[in-house]
Amino acid sequence: MxxxxxxxxxxxTHQAQDSCQQRRWSRGLDPRIPSGAWQExxxxxxxxxxxxxxxxxxxxxxxxxxxxxLAGLGxxxxxxxxxRWLEQSDIYRGDAYGGTRAAEDRAWILAQASEVxxxxxxxxxxxxxxACYLSVHTLRLDPRWDPIREHxxxxxxxxxxxx
Length: 163
Description:
Blueprint (H helix, E strand, L loop, with lengths): L1 H12 L8 H7 L13 H14 L4 H13 L3 H13 L1 H5 L3 H15 L3 H13 L7 H6 L10 H9 L3
């Protein structure tokens, strides 16, 4: 969360060179904003996120934020690269708390990048696991799951893990 707040703050105060208004920057990291909102200032958002990754190359939260941004920009392959980075990270593989957070972010990236089966594999793993913050209620309400919400397997997972 701290990294996302840092990025949001940086976006708000960053002087865009492509004449985007500062209020548009803050909307870019808000998951409630449709993915098309990223396309208002794609060049500057990409440059900023790339610089944050260069500054904090081993921070999974930066890679997660960048992956979500890239997916929102329609840069599918780059977003999937971040999803792979998350999957190979130490936190994903070895941290009971942070690993589930990284896995949830990875699932969001995969869902936004139209990798439905991989996203649902991750969701199912999270729902079946012991220490997960992801819930059926979150899946039903959070708009980040909209790209896969109508998928039959998604609906079945909601039914299976409802109680």
